[in-house]
Design brief:
By secondary structure, the protein is an alpha+beta fold. Helices cover 43% and strands 24% of the residues. It folds into two domains: 144 residues, Jelly Rolls; 72 residues, Arc Repressor Mutant, subunit A. The longest helix has 27 residues. It is globular, with a radius of gyration of 18 Å. GO terms for molecular function: DNA binding; DNA-binding transcription factor activity.
């Protein structure tokens, strides 16, 4: 069930970007925002199709996935309560070759693309904040490429689990081996071995599709520098 947000005076949101906006910027957005649930695997953006809505995620995680002509797929980035979908829209385009879908269920405030563009056109401060997020997201994507190209699977898995942990409540996440393999672009047996290795180092516990973070500092160390730079840039530019 969806609900409309209309009064910027009493507006509140767990989305980090929206929580930082001043009253005048919120007034441009709130009449057009609708609070909706996000269901697992729900499509947010389809490859090469018009982006009709932009989502300010309040809970859950949205994955940005790249697909090859040979139908191979890999996650390029992810967005949680710290951000917003519609990267292409912010940059002035109307579509993307990538797919965006809900990885973990939650909720979001949704706005039609046309209304979002109008708000950006009327506010330099809103545009600046959105561009800061785009910049940080691009850094995240670059470090995903770094991890995929230079890190071992255990290091990549550690980084990915940390990024999921950053965007979820609590220390547990429902994750199948098949789904992790899709996100990391590796084979399922490799994920199984990597999970066992992390569990053997007492960094996680994995049982029946649930992964629990036990030693976050250990995961950060294992990630070998592939985790932390985008997060640091977020704190520097956004807070």
């Amino acid at each position: 069930m969806s609900s409309t947000v209309s009064d910027s005076q009493v507006f509140s949101s767990t989305n980090r970007l929206l929580s930082l906006l001043g009253h005048s910027d919120l007034a441009l957005l709130t009449p057009h925002l609708t609070r909706i649930p996000l269901a697992t695997r729900q499509s947010i953006e389809r490859p090469n199709e018009d982006i009709t809505h932009v989502y300010f995620v309040e809970s859950g995680i949205v994955s940005i996935v790249a697909h090859s002509a040979a139908h191979e797929s890999i996650e390029a980035g992810l967005i949680g309560y710290e951000g917003v979908t519609g990267i292409s829209v912010i940059m002035g385009d109307h579509r993307t070759p990538h797919e965006a879908f809900v990885q973990f269920e939650g909720g979001a405030l949704r706005i039609e693309t046309a209304a979002f563009r109008d708000a950006l056109a009327q506010s330099e401060t809103l545009t600046r904040l959105m561009l800061h997020f785009v910049h940080i997201f691009n850094i995240q994507v670059a470090h995903t490429a770094l991890a995929n190209g230079r890190a071992h699977i255990e290091e990549r898995l550690a980084r990915w689990l940390l990024m999921v942990h950053d965007r979820t409540v609590g220390d547990e996440a429902t994750l199948t081996h098949e789904f992790i393999a899709l996100m990391l672009g590796v084979r399922r047996p490799g994920v199984t071995d990597a999970l066992h290795a992390l569990e053997g180092k007492a960094m996680i516990r994995s049982t029946r599709g649930i992964v629990r973070i036990v030693d976050r500092e250990g995961l950060e160390s294992l990630a070998s520098g592939t985790y932390g730079v985008p997060e640091s840039e977020y704190r520097r530019l956004i807070g």
